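Thread: Newbie trying to understand structure tokens

Hi all, I'm a second-year student working on a class project, and my supervisor (Dr. K.) asked me to get a predicted structure for one chain before our next meeting. I've only ever worked with sequences, so writing a 3D structure as a token string is new to me. If someone could post the tokens and maybe explain what I'm looking at, I'd be very grateful. Here's the chain:
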Amino acid sequence: MITFAAQFLLINQMKSVAMFGEKRSSIGKRNSKDLRIEGKVPCVLYGNKVEPIHFFIYASDFTDIVYTPNTYTAKLTIDGQLHRAIIKDVQYHPVNESIIHADFMEISEDKPVTLDIPVKVVGNSPGVRAGGKLEKKIKKLKVKGLINDMPDFIEVNIDNVELGKSVKVSEMKADKFTFLDATANAIISVVATRNSRQEANAAK
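---
Reply by user tm_fold:
Sure, no problem. This is what the structure looks like when written as tokens:
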């Protein structure tokens, strides 16, 4: 068990979302425009073992993997062939914010990947009980490791966080992956409010 004020638990292995695509018959701006009119998103799959694959996915299929605070891998089937991948980049329309292009990267069990993993705050902060306000400074932590070691989320325990204190990246420890955010960055902070300051002054 980790003895830091901040702890994390690997709750479950990261989940996957099934996605289905078809290879594009042609590549170009005109073809991309036609696909978008039909409700499809032009995509590219990159990987170490394959040449880039140009394909499309229906826009509605992105709902469960993009429009969520969670991080998932994709079980991506293109013309019947299965690829395990992560989304590396998504481009949005500047006006209506619909997805207009997406890049996928094929992953393997033996090669490290870099992902942003959601933070889940647990516990009961004495600083919050004293009237402080809990502020989440980082919603996702950037980590690097093997895909099978990636959790659904990283727990940050605040049971020992007093008023005016923070939990920093440097307090987080992991055996199977590495935290890439700056160690001095605060993940959460408990800041003083007007009421907490008034109570503190009254107690003097």
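A couple of things are worth pointing out once you decode it. The chain has four helices and 13 strands. The first strand starts at residue 16 and ends at 23. Feel free to ask follow-ups in this thread.
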